[in-house]
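Format notes (please read before filing issues)

Several people have asked whether sequences and structure tokens are stored in separate files. They are not. Every record keeps both together, in the order shown below: the sequence lines, then the token lines. Line labels are part of the format and must not be stripped during preprocessing.
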Amino acid sequence: MGSASRTRSRSCLHCYPSVTSPPNRGTIGTPAGTVRVLRILLVVNSFASSVTARNTVIVHRQLSRGHDVEVVETNRRGHATRFAHDAARRGIDVVIGYGGDGTLNEVATGIAGTDAALGVLPGGSTNVFARTLGMPNDPVAAVDHLVLGLDAGDLRSIGLGRVNGRFFCFHTGVGYDAAVVRDVERRGALKRWFGHPLFMYSALATWARGYDRGRPHFSLDAGDGRRIDDGYFAVVLNTNPYTFLGNRPLDLVPGATLDQPFAVVAFRSMRAGVIVRGLGSALRGGGVTPNEHLASWDGVHHLVLEHDEAFPYQVDGDYLGTATRLTFDHVPDAVRLVHPGTPTGS
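Then the structure lines:
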């Protein structure tokens, strides 16, 4: 799940060691056969669970060995989007989100549709998107993968999801899932230190008393004849996995990828057996199996969820509140992603 962007704001060009960049690294945006130093903005959420002063210095040093790096730190939600959008306007080549999945979401939102490329560094507790790309969960190890991608100029256009105008990188959760995230964020001071155990506690607490399991909360309509009227818990996936439980991916729809339209999973019952069977199959890597209590759709370009009473939703692990209507659309080729490389011996 993501981390809210709540850190100090300062230009770390004045805070981190200066490293001279040799003029023979970087290939993004250059004609064939030529190279240049890349202009990079590193957007840091230092309240994210894996972001420390030591790690940030190491990350900055590694990136600066071949490129010109500017570092900024966020101090409130939405701050990373503003930094990223301004960087794209100024002609920065790559904007790197270093924090949790929420920080990455904000950076992607800020550069979507621009020439700036998106770089990823894990700094949160789960780091779903970075790990989906095959990066290690440790930022100090992950920066070596990112540097290889930068130096190779390995850019890949990816699609993003959009819900009520808000972009998302890997999923939007609606209903029970979002109620769990809401409970975690209410205990935000504990999230940095207790991570996954806190999520497990919140999942159980929400199941027991924080979510009405006795009635449907929304309908889902894909606009192509696929519709259900009794949704309790749904996930709109831009890629797979849905999340990680420790080192194990929760593969709701193994075939979901960043270059395809959405996959949608909707639970039509909150009975314990239905949830356990569905998520158990996903933990074993086989994805969910559709049945009378569980719908699984792929190839979804457009989706509407609605109900007379407001229901909760979260985007890339950040709780966004409640709504009576959510409109989803898939945006192909929304952003260029720096695809991480694999260091020798990894």
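For reference, the curators noted about this record: The CA atoms of residues 193 and 311 lie 29 Å apart. Confidence is low (pLDDT under 50) at residues 1-27, 31-35.
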